[in-house]
Amino acid sequence: MTRVFNFSPGPATLPEAVLRQAAEEMLDWHGSGMSVMEMSHRGKEFISIHAEAEALVRELLGVPSNYKVLFMQGGAIGENAIVPMNLIGKTGKADYVVTGDWSKKSAKEAKSYGKVNAAASGEASHFTAIPKQSEWKLDPEASYVHICSNETIGGVQYHWTPDTGAVPLVADMSSDIMSRPIDVSRYGLIYAGAQKNMGPSGLTLVVVRDDLIGHALPICPSAFNYQTQAEADSMYNTPPTYAIYIAGLVFKYIKAQGGLKAMEAHNQAKAAILYDYLDESRFYRSPVAREARSLMNVPFKLKDDALDEAFLKGAQAKGMIQLKGHRSVGGMRASIYNAMPVEGVKALVAYMKEFEAQHG
Amino acid sequence: MTRVFNFSPGPATLPEAVLRQAAEEMLDWHGSGMSVMEMSHRGKEFISIHAEAEALVRELLGVPSNYKVLFMQGGAIGENAIVPMNLIGKTGKADYVVTGDWSKKSAKEAKSYGKVNAAASGEASHFTAIPKQSEWKLDPEASYVHICSNETIGGVQYHWTPDTGAVPLVADMSSDIMSRPIDVSRYGLIYAGAQKNMGPSGLTLVVVRDDLIGHALPICPSAFNYQTQAEADSMYNTPPTYAIYIAGLVFKYIKAQGGLKAMEAHNQAKAAILYDYLDESRFYRSPVAREARSLMNVPFKLKDDALDEAFLKGAQAKGMIQLKGHRSVGGMRASIYNAMPVEGVKALVAYMKEFEAQHG
Questions:
Q1: Which of A28, B32, B170, B261 has a beta carbon 3.0–4.6 Å from B189's, enabling a disulfide?
Q2: Preceding peptide of B131 cis, ω within 30°
Q3: What is the arithmetic mean of pLDDT over A201-215?
């Protein structure tokens, strides 16, 4: 068995130790005589798995006690509707900061539920930078301000936390959750699809401050209502049990590695190897402004687009896959989430040098 | 390792062969160097897994070509809102036939989206029978008629297909999908959570006739809009990839067993062992009318409620778990889906006889 270096933007590579444990426990979890997949979500075995996963989220992210941790379904695209259905009713309007394809999609979807104010947009820079907060046009009456902390397609990431005063800050952290320490108390709500840094697709993490719960629009489905789910401990409907179990194993792995500070150091080191090489090379380049460069998704361009196919083919032959950039921006993209080992990035840079030597 | 006989109503027992294969392929699916969990949903590997799962659904259920097969999220409770958000807009109203806790919940949720007519209810019989169609008060202008083909809590199941004329029949088949052959052409839409007969929780199967797609209310989230998902081959948002993979393995297992006719014979044989014993016993009894008895969920009562605890404890000691009935009806419930082997039911009846001999 040879494992590849998988640079997919998501679903993405997972720690090998987690996959090994999942394989070993597949037919019989801890002597229960069952797979986790087969467990009633109301049984004591799964309740313990669920409680441990929640406790680890609280510990790793430092979630204050006045926030609920919910495990939901529908991914971040689901939350694009679920967030406004739950929060926009307070004043009927919300601010959106658009920094790329994902936050653009979020803003568009929210329009079905209230008035959406485009508080700022990075469109002028072709989404290669994040607008400074001094340029944002915030509405003090907004129900919330929505940002996307890391844009997987453009590869821009906030390296600062916006200050939205009394208006709750809502962040889609799908692609950088658990990659670095954050101050949860600065946010009203954080959501994230699991399939980048936490586990399999089909699970959404929501961390929401208590006072934001209970204002859902009447058309909000019960299964996607934060109040219903908070009151039922995320079990108003059957939760995605196996995905929660895998995420719990990933959380334990992160903790054993030293928690989010260790993850941040690991991610900074990996990204530096790649960006340093991009900056010194005359064959490759990063299109993103230095202060907004993502530690998770690193888009880059070759000097000549016509070489893209050969580059991808050569990478594939060396066991490095999913390096093709999103069709909307072209070029390449290396997604280097928590579970990408430094060896993967070193192997990529070694290959890039070799390719440059051949084609430069 | 000793595997238990797991009588959970869902998530529920899965075929051991499926779990073994999943364990073996966990770190490296078919030489890809990745777990299925790690695969991009846009990559050729996962696209092949997804296409095969869909093809097997079409083959096993005999889905006509003018129906779409969608893999979604949110479970049946999610669909309680998603169905009316997509379908009720046609005339603004819908008929619901209430035969137990699940269809009652469906009818209640639909009221947020249009006018709900309670066309019939089994409440007078305490949900131990299904009202005859001659007693239903159907509205010819309804956008659809909703039924639940099998109620997991009360243990009643339709053994006939309602005739709703030109009005589309919508069925929640969460707990009996793939357990017997059905004529899909008699339905406008079928939905089912995966966690009883198909795989892990977190995956919803939707089979919907083409002409019912495209009438969603403006407040329907894109991720839950049948049109958006049909146009994107269920990949408008990242689908629950691992759950689809496991469901695909289960579908292959069902096919290898002889398909849905073989499943029906297997399920009839298992249920007969249990019901025959319940009918001959003076210690246990089935509360359900004979013509409505479920082949999937068999609730039963002991002569004396005070013995319930001892019964459950004794069963657990023999490796038979999750036999406690739902709190709303009390007593016992044996859920005997496709993957429950006949040995499990025989072991249960042997234990019931032993318990009766001791306490009768």
A1: B170
A2: no
A3: 98
CB-based contact B238:A11 (threshold 8 Å)? yes
pLDDT (tens digit per residue) in A290-324 = 999 999 999 999 999 999 999 999 999 999 999 99
* Catalytic-residue membership of B28: no
CA distances from A275 to A179, A243, A271, A312, A349 (A): 18, 33, 6, 19, 10
The two three-digit tokens of residue A309, written as one number: 């196919």
The string of DSSP letters for A60-73 reads: HHT--TTEEEEEES
Q: In the numeric block, which tokens belong to residue B129?
A: 């029978």
Given the structure tokens 């699916």, which residue do they identify? Answer: B29
Three-state SS for B208?
Answer: strand
Q: Which of B75, B52, B95, B223 is nearest to A77 (CA)?
A: B223
Q: Give the CA-trace dihedral at B74, A52, B26, A241, to 10 degrees.
A: -20
How do B332-335 and B297-302 pair as beta strands? antiparallel
Beta pairing class for B332-335 and B320-321: unpaired
Chain B residues inside the 8 Å CB shell of A28:
1-3
Q: Which residues pair with A193 in a beta bridge?
A: A204
Nearest CA in chain A to B219: A112
How long, in residues, is chain A? 360
Categorize the per-residue pLDDT at B360 as very low, low, confident or very high, splitting at 50, 70 and 90: confident
* B36: amino acid identity, one letter: V
Tokens for B233, please give them. Answer: 């081959």
**Which pLDDT tens digit goes with each residue over B158-193?**
999 999 999 999 999 999 999 999 999 999 999 999
Give the pTM: 0.98
Return the residue matching tokens 């008060």.
B137
Query: In whole angstroms, what is the distance from residue A198 CA to residue A203 CA?
Result: 9
- Closest chain B C-alpha to A235 CA, distance in angstroms: 11
What number is the ipTM of this complex?
0.98
Q: How far apart are CA A224 and CA A236, in angstroms?
A: 9
- Distance of alpha carbon B171 from alpha carbon B184, whole angstroms: 10
Which residue of A242, A312, A336 to mutate against B (max B Cβ within 10 Å)?
A242
Distance of alpha carbon A154 from alpha carbon A175, whole angstroms? 12
Q: CB–CB of B221 and A109 under 8 A?
A: yes
**Domains of chain A from N-terminus onward:** 17-256 (3.40.640.10), 258-359 (3.90.1150.10)
Q: How many CB atoms lie within 10 A of CB B279?
A: 11
Mean pLDDT over B22-39 rounds to 98
